[in-house]
Design goal:
The structure holds 2 protein chains of 2 kinds. By secondary structure, chain A is of the alpha/beta class. Chain A has 19 helices and 8 strands. In chain A, helix 3 packs across helix 6, helix 9 packs across helix 19 and helix 17 crosses helix 18. The chains are: A alpha/beta, B alpha+beta.
Amino acid sequence: MTKEYVWPIERGELEDYYDMMLACAKCKYCQNVFPCFTQNEQFASQCPSGDYWRFEAYYASGRIEIARGIVEGSLNWSDKLRDILYSCTMCGACEENCRTTQRLTPLKIIRTMRERYIREGGELLSPHKRMVGSLLKEHKPYGKTHKSRFQWLSSDLISSVPDSDVIYFVGCTMCYQVPHLARVTTQVLAKLGVNFTVLGNEEWCCGVPLFRLGLVEEGKKLLDHCIKAIEKTGISKVIFSDPSCYETFKNASLYGFETPSFEMQHITEFLLPILKKNKVDLHEVKGKITYHDSPFLSRHLRIYEEPREILKMIPGVELIEMYRNRLNTFDCAGEITVKEAFPEFAVETAKKRIGEAKAVGANTIVCADPNDYRNFVDAKTDLNVMDIMEILLKSLNRGD
Amino acid sequence: MEAEIYDRIADIVGPKWVSDDPEVLIGYARDLGTYGRFGKERRPECVVLPATTHEVRNIIYLARLKKVPVTVYGTGINVGGGTIPKAGGIIIDPRRMNKILEIDEEHHTATVQAGVSIARLSTEVQKRGMFVVAPGAPALASVVSNYTQGNVNKASGRIGWQYNSIVSCEMVLPDGSVIRTGSASDTFIGKKFWPHGPGPDLWILPRYTLGTLGVVTELTVKCFPLDDEMKLFWMSFEDLEKAVKAYKEILHREICTGSSLYVGNKYHYFGDTVESGERLCKIHPNVQLILTLQGTKRRVEYEEKTVRMIADKYGGRNITDVLPFYQMYVDSHITMAASLYSEYTMRYFGSPGAGVVLFPTASIDKIVPAYKTFVKILLDDPYFRDPEGGSSELYTGLITYPNGLGGHNCLLEPCTGGWASDPVFGAALHRVLPKITKAWTDIGLAPDQKDGNPRPHELGLMNTYIDLIKKIKKRFDPDDYMHPGQIIPLLYK
């Protein structure tokens, strides 16, 4: 390949992406499942915000035009533009498909546009303002106190720092929104004999909402604290439940940090070899189960087989794939900033995904992202919604 | 846009489905016709997303009353600015009209609304052992747009011209009336299987008019049965003349449902990813003859034997057995019969410098001098011969394939390296294109504007066809508010 044909991927300013904006051929591959992987015409769309609002501006191809308008000076920041900008769930479907078709990076353009919006004094949506206020004051995005972060934790489950092999970075959504899942995860770890600990009061938000909102400098402060807190323990491995936290740590170098010295894994990546190696006795859990790939886990982190392998190890589980799976997954819009600012959109999108699960005949939808779990529960479905740790714990205990 | 008109549109479709926000309108301002710096954005004044034919009809009626231009968006995929307005006004985005209304397995037809993409329809008909022909179409193009507008000279080697697959359509005319063509016009039949009549044959009415004669809201197309067996055969040559001879023999023997002759950068087309395309580039032969063998098992066996014999006769290397067949290649042959355009080749849809020159020929022999002339003109140009400017390994592109009418189409592309936004590159492209046009006209090649048959020394759209559209448009749309200026220059305003 000649160098002219390789787009420089990492660019700084919105202007640096201008030639990409002009090179968008409007092929619409950012809007749908990659055509040859389309399995059912009713479940072929892939952009949650476009699917909900329907106007071109809510798809990557439209947002690229908005970015062009900003660069050319023909479009000014406005409340409407802000809504369009922050309704993107950042699931990365557009980037994934465009990588093969046009070789552009729409998600990076959207990210850069958000940073530019903030830098030029753009006003955040009210829920985002509240979130940022809470993050800056108490290092967490939700309206509870930092002290209550680990209220759910049974201290007998965790080891002391010197005796621990791994740190479990629980994450804000787990701690504040779905603490029962955090408890379940610690129970699974304990049952499998993992010597783990948590950061306790030193666990702050990793900064992911701030990075996604475009407040990079503020996000860096939080991430910096978290990295230092982990390194201070001397423990060389960190596991995450929330793919968004994991991704933030993994991409620390993008924000000017040195690559963290500790090893990082998602909880499913971490547990799979343990389950295999120890030949753990798993009890039967009956169910027609479908696994929902969180886009942050599958597309952003390329982890999609590990959760499936865990589910397949559980006796009685009939694993059914949805039409959109793995790298072609459909985001349920549970992403933290979108969920806070556009709750109706988030729930409606979750309902669409649940509809797909029902269409393939599943009676349980399992996810491995607490944000998605929370969103599915909010959709008030008659389908069982479970986190992968819940089903694993059930199987570890005594099954059905 | 006047507030009164906007409010009335909102009454028709509901306020949620109409917008005149500049942030929304800018999303409808460009298509591939304005790729890079080759054209300026053209924004509408209002975007509306109707859900039914009735709503489309009311919008059109209102637009006529208020003399507001209307442009139809389709899925927004067009190489010539066909989905963006020339005179502001309303854009109708049929995204909400996205239902596959019927797949009739008995009559082998499928009926879709205007917002259904080829990919979605293909997925469902293939489940039923059929396929729809979509040569030269990106999979996310609208079925309605692609069949009625399509690409002027793309034909499937097996099925023929794509528009021949249109069975019937429902169309809102510029006066707000709705017509249905073919058997769809007879409400007592209930099935759509016959394109012509009763009454005046309006089957071809929307063809190549890009919404200037109305808005197609539903379309019924033919589906074709999938074959018992399909094999692919890939032959490589170092010499274009020998490849052409082998190609001629294959065509004369009437074997292979799909056949394409590719030269130059088209190797990329065969890889599923950018990387696999590049790998293929590294081991590329100069010329490739790519064949699809389809039919009964016995037929495919016979064709394969014959093709291998022809390869030996003209010194072609059979590389079928040594190169991996990428999924793209298989998919495109199933659904497109001859064309290799598919979702994977979309990266060339807008790749830097992929200016396309369409010069179909009825005589395959002319491909050789045409190709040589083409390369010479590029090498004579200071930009294209400069390894720092253009990209010497990527500048040659040629495809030829049967046009379904006994002739062949040849497509040459001056594909070069260069940034889309680079004005030097744009200038170089504009420098060589007239030279190529003249050289090819001199050797007897002229653009096809009528079913693939060349019209000597004539460039641009077929005059007679344009004249016909003009006459119909004067009757249907005397005020010229349906996509004004797109097919026909702004004549009536």
